[in-house]
Amino acid sequence: MKHIYNNILQSVSNGDKLLAILIDPDKFPLNNTETFVNKVNESIATHIFVGGSEVEEQLTDALVNEIKKHTQLPVILFPGDVTQITNKADALLFLSLISGRNPEYLIGKHVQSVSKLKDSNLEIIPTGYILVENGKETAVQRVTNTEPLPRVNVQYITDTAKAGELLGMKLIYLEAGSGACEPISESIISKVKKELNVPLIVGGGIKSKKQLESAYNSGADLVVIGTAFEEDETFFDSLKKKT
After folding, report:
1. Which contacts qualify for 57-66: CB closer than 8 Å, 24 or more apart?
2. pLDDT category, 243, cuts 50, 70, 90?
3. C-alpha 218: how far from chain center
4. What is the set of domains in the chain, with CATH numbers?
5. Helix 186-195 and helix 209-218, axial crossing angle in degrees, nearest 10
């Protein structure tokens, strides 16, 4: 697949809303893959993201390989480190943590990844990654040693997102963090979306269909849900495709 980003653009142009299911290799039992992915296939999900802040080497490769056996959905890497890159996926979110000021996560890790990506078939999608305060410390915050942007400073979040776009990012990702107490607020999503000319991804803390719809209605083009399914797979029941 080399058309994932263009398909996202087309969906945004058509007014279609996208949903990615995030699977963390460090928390996901490999023997549950077929059952879980079958539920994903029956849902309104359009993409599968794979990655996490702290993942043992080789786990991502094994999980992606197993996922690909059971779905035709695009599998996109959402890596917390260079060790999570596998050519078995379809695409890679080339994340730059533009909310932080740690050079390792702004450019350092990217330089380290070049040798792995040079001969890769992955579709590489530059993505501005913005961590927003959610009420508790997240794994991203701990691993990257960066502070999230304050929720109350909506203008600064918006300006950071726009700066990412002007730097050439093809996607902007607003992240509350895994297991967030609160999802990204409607006011933040709405204001950021109004300033952007690239697709907006929103993730973290979304645990109900109502919160999902709220994110869409506020302007999110693609919503990412992960922890909610780790804690309760019955959430899929409310997201089944209409027949």
Report:
1. 57/83, 59/25, 59/26, 60/25, 60/84, 60/85, 60/86, 61/86, 61/88, 62/25, 62/30, 63/23, 63/25, 63/28, 63/30, 63/33, 64/88, 64/89, 66/30, 66/33, 66/34
2. low
3. 18
4. 4-239 (3.20.20.390)
5. 30
| CB distance 169 to 95 below 8 Å | no
User: What are the distances in angstroms from CA 79 to CA 26, 55, 57, 94?
Assistant: 12, 9, 12, 8
CA atoms within 13 A on the CB side of 68: 16
Question: The dihedral of CA 226, 231, 232, 233: what is its sign?
Answer: positive
Residue % of the chain over a pLDDT of 70: 99
Residue with tokens 């990654």: 129
Which has more pLDDT, 181 or 91?
91
Q: Which residue in 222, 199, 200 sits closest to 212, CA to CA?
A: 222
pLDDT tens-place string over residues 55-108: 988 999 999 999 999 999 999 999 999 999 999 999 999 999 999 999 999 999
Global confidence as pTM: 0.97
- Give one DSSP letter per residue of 184-201, joined into a string: PPHHHHHHHHHH-SS-EE
Pairwise CA distance, residues 152 & 91, whole Å: 34
